Amino acid sequence: MSKPIVAIVGRPNVGKSTLFNVLAGERISIVQDTPGVTRDRIYADCTWLDMSYTLIDTGGIEPDSKDIILSQMREQAEIAIATADVIIFITDVRQGLVDADSKVADMLRKSGKPVVLVVNKVDNFDKFMPDVYEFYNLGIGDPIPVSAASRLGIGDMLDEVSKYFPNSSKEEEEDERPRIAIVGKPNVGKSSIVNRLVGENRVIVSDVAGTTRDAIDTTVRYNKKEYVFIDTAGLRRKNKIKEEIERYSIIRAVTAVERADVVLVVIDASEGVTEQDAKIAGIAHERGKGVLIVVNKWDLVEKNDKTMKEHTNKIREVLSFMPYAEILFISAETGQRTGKLYEYIDMIMENQTLRVQTGVLNEIMTEAVAMQQPPSDKGKRLKLYYITEVSVKPPTFVIFVNDKELMHFSYTRYIENKIREAFGFRGTSLKFIIRERK
Ligand code: GDP
Ligand code: GDP
């Protein structure tokens, strides 16, 4: 089920990062072995009461001159409008209402997206409340006073934000069609791949529902099946400033991946795999999505019989956290192997939803335990009692043991490998939950 996306928009210095950190807390959104991603605070997985959401900070670079500030804010607002379910528009009671605020408020109002207007730095409600009323002039609803620094008013703000969360993603869950996100750095060829895949197969959807999201997705019929390509409108967008492009590609990846079943992580063959690619791939990995690594522009590479192997080795090294993902070498330009993309998408979808019978799983586990003794500590040996698959997308297994502390990561990995030897599960991560049975 995809989580709602909340974006923070506001001028420099109004307190965006402070608010972001308060909401994200110490929570680390990334699994430990995904490189690079933890340094960034562009997005975070957050919760409020029993609700989960993904928070994104559209800010980032601090412009110095006034007209740059406005154009940057327009960019931020556009990104938020394109990707978020709810926008937090944050202003600063101490600087008061400024012209740039009004212009951005106009943009947000016209978008029709839910906006929560927040007035920050109200450290003392008695003293500053009179100044808060001025923000009604923005015409985007009631200003909510908060102090991000002293964590005042945050609960009231989140109550307001969560009012706009979709009740449930029932519609999406009932929708059996594969949902595919295509992610990667700028210029790796994402739009070209979309054009290849969509090509003549685009379905003209007449019954466009009320959501803005439908407008940015493209439905395709191929081999009598329908596929939904997510946020294809976002792919056609072109930005100018380099830092923004990088930030935007991360935000786009997070929001598209959130809604996807299968993620195509596109790498530029002529450039080779980079840390930035690992960052983007990590987003799909940590969310447990189906993944295909697509090496594009294969036509530009001078090849001999070892070239593909060399590229594969390098990718396995840099993307070491997803050994389960297949690698496909294509050229969107010439069409080489692009026909295989749908085959892989089908295969990954199947594996994401594959259910293995409990009896079979327990046979595999018993055999694995017999072949390699479980670890022990201080005279106590790990015992594995029972394994069962409890959910799919990604396939999730619960293993009951005598003592959780004894179940080392490496032994879980060993069991995972045995399950993969039997069933493959190519293209999807597997999740293991270890429980103690008393
Ligand atoms: P950003 O540029 O919008 O991300 O703003 P920052 O989060 O970096 O905050 C800008 C400045 O405002 C920093 O010096 C913060 O310490 C300060 N600040 C943030 N929130 C509050 C607040 O609630 N009250 C006060 N007095 N200062 C705050
Ligand atoms: P995006 O920013 O990831 O959407 O990348 P684009 O699809 O806009 O492609 C960026 C550039 O790479 C364009 O000039 C494309 O024509 C070119 N390109 C895309 N795929 C290929 C390919 O397979 N081979 C070659 N030679 N060029 C490609």
From TrEMBL:
Gene3D superfamilies, per the entry: 3.30.300.20, P-loop containing nucleotide triphosphate hydrolases
GO biological process: ribosome biogenesis
Entry superkingdom: Bacteria
InterPro entries: AAA+_ATPase, G_ENGA, GTP-bd, GTPase_Der, KH_dom-like, KH_dom-like_a/b, P-loop_NTPase, Small_GTP-bd
Residues holding GTP 2: 184-191, 231-235, 296-299
A Pfam match: MMR_HSR1
Keyword Flavoprotein: no
Keywords of the record: GTP-binding, Hydrolase, Nucleotide-binding, Repeat, Ribosome biogenesis
GO MF, any single term: ribosome binding
PANTHER family: GTPASE DER
Assembly description: Associates with the 50S ribosomal subunit.
Role according to the record: GTPase that plays an essential role in the late steps of ribosome biogenesis.
NCBIfam families: GTPase_EngA, small_GTP
The protein, known as: GTPase Der
GN (gene name): der
